[in-house]
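Throughout our pipeline, every protein is held as a single compact record rather than as scattered files. Nothing more is needed to write down the fold, since each code stands for a local backbone conformation. For reference, a complete record is included directly beneath this paragraph.
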Amino acid sequence: MSQSDPGAPDPTGRPSWIQAIASDERFRPKDVLGPAALLDAGLPLALFTLVYTAAGRDLTLSLWVAVASGVLLGVVRLLRKEPLQNVIAGFLGVGLAAFMASRTGRAEDVFLPGLLINVGYGLAYLVSIAVRWPLLGVFVGLVTGQGMAWRQDPALVRAYTQASFLWVGMFAVRLAVQVPLYLAGEDQIGWLAGARLVMSWPLFLLVAYLSWLIIRPAYRAHQERQAPAQPPSRPDSLDG
């Protein structure tokens, strides 16, 4: 039976849907966290803010520039035959933001979808912690191919829970800083854009690193316990 056969038994005991995701070539962390993802997510809104400030607060022109930059990124990815999941997600986000701002006539509404996303993620992490299924453990299990085996290790569940609180804190800090700037209106749009930029990937990478420091000891101990025991070797001097 070939490795790609979805019916093939998994020696790690992972459920079939987890096995399928982990083995999917399109599911690659570097495509989600790499430099291309940073560009796809940040360039359109950065250009929007720059054009809006430099062009006398011309909302229509700024929105068209943001949308055009998303299209251009997609064309470049197509020509280079690169994965498009980040471009598609980013373009949908920019499209939604442009639609909302065009309907309300408020430039600051370009940033509203991002604020709502932070609210959603923060609540999702809180709920996952409350039900003892921390989302960070689910994500790491999928990426590493460990599946849900960590659920059987109380120390690892505790580590994922503690690290998940860091992510709740990250979303809360973003909202605490950016929501007042959003409510202040277009006069603070430059500060809002700057706060969003500083608190996006730099803060994300810091929280990811701190999470790794929390999870690493428990994860290594779990891996050592899962490794098959090796029988002790007999010294030659004892033979005969």
Observations:
- Residues 1-35 have pLDDT under 50 and may be disordered.
